[in-house]
Amino acid sequence: MTLMPQLTHWWPRPHFSLFLLVLWLLLVNSISPGQVLIGAVLGWLIPFSTQQFWPERPHLHNPGRLLLYMLRLLVDILRSNLSVARLILRDPDTLTPAFVRYPLSLTNEFAITMLASSISLTPGTVSAGLSPDRAYLLVHVLHLDDEDELIEQIRERYETPLREILE
Amino acid sequence: MNHLPVLPILLPLITGALLVTLPRLGLNAQRFISLGATVAGLGLVLWLGSMVLEHGRLVYALGGWAPPFGIVLVPDRLSVLMLVLTATLAVPALIYACRGDDDAGAHFHALFQFQLMGLNGAFLTGDIFNLFVFFEVLLIASYALLLHGGGTARSRAGLHYVIINLIGSALFLLALGMLYGLTGTLNMADLATRISNAPQADQPLLQAASLVLLVVFGVKAALLPLLFWLPRAYTAAAAPVAALFAVMTKVGLYAMIRVFPLVFALDQPLAALTAWQWLWPLALATLALGGIGVLGATSLRNMTAYMVIVSTGTLMAIIALGSTEALAAALFYLVHTTLLTGGFFLFADLIARQRGAAGDYMVVTAAMKDRRTLGILFCFGAVALAGLPPFSGFVSKAWMLQASLAEGAAGIFWPLLLGAGFLMLVALSRAGSKFFWRQSPERDHDMRADRVRLACVIVLVGAGLVLSLAAAPLMDYTRSVAAQLMAPGDYVRAVHEAGLRLTGGH
Amino acid sequence: MTATVLPIALALFSLSLLLNLYRLLRGPDIVDRILGLDTLNVNAIAVIVLGGIYMDSSLIFEAALLIALMGFVSTVAMTKYLVRGDVIE
Amino acid sequence: MMLLSIVALPLLGALITPLVSRRSTAILPALIAGAIGITVVSVLLSQAPDVLGGAILIGHYPWLPGIGLSPAFRLDALGLFFALIIAGMGLLITLYAHFYFAGKHGAVRFHSLMLAFMGAMLGIVTSENLLFMLVFWEMTSLVSFVLIGFHQDERPARRGARMTLVITGGGGLALMAGVLLIGNSVGSFQLSDILAPETALTSDPLYPWMLGLVLIGAMTKSAQFPFHLWLPNAMTAPTPVSAYLHSATMVKAGIFLLARLHPALGDTDAWLYSISTAGMATLLTGAFIAMFKHDTKELLAYSTVSHLGLITLLVGLSTRMAMVAALFHLLNHALFKAPLFMMAGAVQKATGTRDMRRINGLWRTLPALTVISAVAAASMAGLPLLGGYLSKKMFFIESMNASVMPPLQWLTPALAAIAGLFSAAYSFRIFHNVFFNGKPQDLPVWPPKNPGVGIQVPAAVLALAVVLVSWHAESVVHGLIGPVASAAAGSALPDYDMHQLHHIGTAFFMSLAAMLGGLLVYMAREPLFRLYDQLPPADAREIFEWLMTRAGGTAERLVHALENGSVQRYIALIILSAIVLAGPVLLSGIQWHGGETMTPVDPLTGLGLVLLMASAVGVVLGHHQRLFALLLLGSAGLFVTLTFARFSAPDLALTQLSVEVMAVIIMMLALSFLPQTTPLESSRLRKGRDLGVATLGGLGVGLVSFAIMTRPHSTIADFFLSQSKPGGGGSNVVNVILVDFRGFDTLGEITVLGIAAVAVFALTRNLQLKDRIPQERDQYWASNPHPLILRTMARPILPIALMVSAYIFLRGHNMPGGGFIAGLITAVALSLQYMAGSLAWAHERMLTPFRPLIGLGLLLACGTGLGSLVFGEAFLSSWFGHYKLPLLGHLELATALLFDLGVFTTVVGATLLILANLGKLMTVHGPGKEIG
Amino acid sequence: MEALYAIAVGVLTACGIYLVLRGRTFPVIMGLTLLSHGVNLFLFASGRLALAAPAVIGESADPTDPLPQALVLTAIVISFAMTAFVVVLALRAAVELRNDHVDGVDPEEDWRP
Amino acid sequence: MMGESMALPFWLDALIALLLLSGALVALLGSIGLARMPDVYMRLHGPTKASTLGVGATLLGSMIWFGVGHEGLSAQEILITVFLFATAPVSAHMMARAALHRRVACREGTHGEPWDEMDRLPGYAESSPSSDNQR
Ligand code: NA
Ligand code: NA
To answer: Is F73 on the interface with D (CB under 8 A)?
Structure first.
């Protein structure tokens, strides 16, 4: 059913196949040869048969840095939650919410997505929209102190690393 | 191991699945496959019938799991009667459909096969939850078939039909929950045993379950306050579908006479059941309403739909008497009325096709090209349906009247039955004279009736005569069916023994 | 210690569920309600997992997994419906 | 065989006639009919000596002995007498009809029907089995219906036919009831048993019913007041039909029946009063009205009504010779009325009309017919020495002898005399008005032409018979009527003193008075006509039609008041039925708490259930805002899932969850095209009613659920738990039940899903929507349907979800999961691609043969089941095995997995087929493009 | 617990019945869904309520009755199929009849999709 | 009910307890935000971050609890966590987009105007009220 009309690559996504194999082994909670075989077969078969659904192949320049980026993001998430907690428990009237347009310099779709997600997961910001020409992200800020600082922070912490990793 | 009992379910299932698998198959190929399977199905059930005649009753344990744990099919005389009746109706209905009705929408043949599968399954199963499942199979197929061809009337009637049956299904599940919660089993024979041994404290709940089941089956069988979905649905359906639907109301009836005598009346007379005591007045009211409806109908299809109600009212009233003889008479009448009303649905369509925009409405139009043939056919059919001699309607009516007299129920039943017959006579004579005698002065319709369609109608209407001529063996058979039904202990024993055989072999 | 904390955690999540349902019922906008339902789904995952620890069984963790998947898909479907008036086009 | 042939020959003839002669003007049908008539008459005559001597010939042909329905024939004097009239008349009518129809269409049809009728009529009079007699009885009604409607394009013909059928058919049903009562009481439907002296029906408690029902049958057939209305309206039939059916034969069937059953049912006061009253009323009504009819056939029809009344009255009188008089008059009536009808037919042919005000002085044109008619009319008028006079005089004598209501002893003879007077008057009229009475006036056929000799021959034969019977009255009465009457009375009658008839006594003067009175009335006809015209017009046909229309209309209204097309009412009725039926049973002394100890409520579960209820109530309260209600429905689904999870049903939780999401998406897809809000249109009353029904229903279900849960439980579950592993090869018992123990249910279940998907495909196939309603005022749609962020994130989700799906599928047999859930996960993952991309985008990327997928899934599941047949096992028998493979280690193979794969495939195919076809509705895919 | 559960079943059923009696297709369909929830929970309870006793061999000492679970599973699937169908049918009826009243006749006005 | 016989090292037990408790607290915080905040855009913040994190912490706790001696390491929790973190922003984005599309008002005093340049706004470029039904 998901076998597409045009199969272009016999092994479209080696990394992803590996990820699926690990996922499988974790799911079945076993590393018996049989399960490895099944996991490997599925890990190849599923990306193979659905490759047309995921046509873009983002070339990771530096997988290690991506991992690092994730880690930093995680820390940011934790931090952001503490700050958001304070905000939430404050009297909402004292908050100064804002919509901020963040000018994008990224062009890669995956990178934009990653950026938008990072923004949403981190302190007091939610990416609320993307302009059709992908010129800027509309960001809703729960409590805005300084718009420029916020934009600069995002650019420095997320956009720049992402451009380096993904573009 | 003899697998015959399961084949009447599998054959249409596989045929239907095959037709769905090959959606680009040409119409003629579909017809060929569908018709072949239906005819083969007729052969199959006849063969099964001969085996049942030989053994009385077969018990087929699916998956080899002993009852009451696994699902069993228990083809007995009643099953065979219903199976053969369905197949007999299905063949001409399908042939009729193959003349063009099947092309009015998608997947007619697959749906038709699934419908047969559901019907056959319902007639064969010995497990009450499995009965529910087959009810759903036949219902979903019937929803689709009812809507086959499209149009506003169908959408409207279909919506009602579907919603009401969904509520019926919910009630069915409710009753099943009650039964399982109190007995812990689903096999009908086992249920019977457990219910007859149930503690006194559970009796009100079990009775309530039986009454909910009465409502469920009553919706399908068209019992009075539950039947109002029927006239429009049957009037709106495509002719071959309506013809097949003639057997659909009988499924509800089948379920009644399958479940109640066996499951709830193992150790008490049927007539003592609360459900049965309700059935009597409600059925009589149904009969009365059907008669009035026949008189008030404005189209032949609508009239036939009300004749279906008359017939179900009659049937339920007579089975409500609870005697073997009454049951036998009812079963004979069931065969007669199913084939005849089925044939009449086709006939109404045949006429409608000849009369242009007037359709089967009872208005005056130009003369039909084939009005001689059609008129004679109408005459025969009307006579048979109204219960006049020499056709099977008369035979069955005479029998039912006698059986009800023996039960001391003549005082109410006779006037109603005879009165309904009278109203049918009035209505049919009016319809006939409008269709065939009265013509507006415009130019005659010059289209001839399709010969194959005509033949299908002749076959079904002719059943009235055939059933009358072959009444003696059929009556013997329905007597034996009734006798078997009224001895539920044998059923229970047979299933129990089959269970023992299987567990012994395990 | 886990045993002590578990009921407290469950109680806190129950409170969360209540607050989510409040938002779902209260609105005012349909987006608020969707948000309420989405959060309800997320918290239900935690409740299931805590229930699993409580019953010492990970048997129902697939249910949590499915809630994550299904909750996401239904949120997407609903927001898409709001924006496009259609879900699949 | 001989008995059978009497009935069978004409019936066979009826079938053969249309087959052998295709031209409807051919002579062949008449020849066949004639030959059959002659044969039957000969057969009857050959038996006459024996039968009249008292022999009773009986032949049995067992058919349905179980319900007493077997053809059995009987020829006794009574039957022979009637059979001879039927066959003999039939012969003459055949001859007459041949000339009547000469050159006209319809002869074949007519002869065929006539033969059918003759056979049926012979069947009635020769039936030994009373139940089987009904077959013939109804057949005569039906044939008569068709014959009356012979001229289909004439409105009166159609109406007359219908009226006849309704009245006689209805009477037949009453008769059926009566016959069944008799048969039940006697224990047999054979006349030999019923008429046996030891049978005591008259003391049966149901006797009044038997008599009443039989009487209704007889009265409708024999056109007795008030059922007589059909007969005049039946005159629209061709004249041979009127002459045969409606004067000579069919209308006598009722009288035959009374005569036949007289031994069993007669000799009671009930018999006497009911029958003689009916007869007298008919006699008077018919005679009176006949006088005022200007149409020859109508006059004759009312005259027939009157004479039938007379005969009925005689049958009802309990005097010793009444039966003789009745039968003798019956013979005379047949002989004189038939030629008069034939005359009417011939005159119509000659003049083109039947209106006596226009037909005059035909004696010049039709001299022979004038003579014939003179004889017949004289006999009808009761002119001395003719048969009619004799039988009528017998009637007068019997009316005086009768011991009806002693205080009113004079009444019967007085009424009889009045009837005789009118009878004489109309007899004069029909003769005088037609053949004399000046010149014809503007006839349609001018000059009147002689229709030929042939058509007059049968009438002449009958006129001759009138003379002969009159001449030899004594021997006819002694030799024929006597034995017949004995047979009818059930015992031998004393010799009838024929000299009494020639005696000049009271009866003679009554006859004379009637004659003269009749003459006077006839002379004074013009003022009488004017007087009659001033009576309020009471056209039976109009009344009948009005009644029928009214009945139809009332029925229609009544039915539509009940079946009013409101499904809300139907649903309420269904639910109320369940409540009303089950409610009282539950309330009568049930112990709600079954005795088992209850599980204590833990707060979390309690909260979950409360939230579930809150969601449900929220759906109700918020249902006017549809999307909102849908969200709450989703929430309710979530809490149902949690409930299942809490109460140890992980499989259910998984299934409920996946199904819920799918269902909500499907509902949302549909909601795109539906109004977003539900109007506030229920009245307060309606809401109250619904709330009441809902409360009762919910209360009932809740209480029953409680009652069940608190009762002890013993189930077959132990078997499943113990056999799941060793027998089914899986440790997830629910899954083993689904794919093995009760795999057949699952097969049915996926079939339902597959059918539903195919049905959705069929429903949406020609439904193309390019347009939809705005959700709210000034609503417009975003132009970008596929936001980038969603699109990007959806891509990796698909393979991961498929992996999860594979995992859920493979572990299903041992752990919660299985083909169904895996299928839904796959479907949901793909539907996310529909949402993030588009239908077209997704479909470019996959083969989309969803229907084949459904079919293949079903075939796979079914094929797995069939596989076991090869090994001699029952359908769906499972097989599993454990293998130890080198390198790979432990491996378990089970057919159940294959079955589950079928389930998986069907579910994926069905779900996607539904989604895709709903999704395509607003998408321009090109007209009629099929998806799936 | 049984009592509360029974109340929940009753409330679901009552809500379902009330909605099923509405005049527009969409609430009716939602009512049918609620009704089937109620009925499924009812059927489920026919095997009695058991905590932490899934019918998976080896998972618990005294597993609950698995049969009602299998029945409810079948019922869920069937009612899903039926819901899908009736939704589409309601849609089709609304398009063809130009209103979404269950009887196909809008008491107020015609609505055009 | 829970396997209390299982002896966990104290620090692990404490870690699990901490994770569960803090997770529940954080999640509750998110829900409080959902309930308390004055407009839909502000309400989005709580669930998107706090609930996701809270549930994530709970899942981590569960993973450790089951991983250490109960049933072995199970992937479901990892998968769920990853999945939640991946999808929460998307959901939030979609919801915000929907709210914007529906022109749900933001609280008084919100800085910035999301709708000021209608044609420049996400998803609005090619759409106008007059052409709403033509696609
Ligand atoms: Na005249
Ligand atoms: Na769409």
So the answer is: no
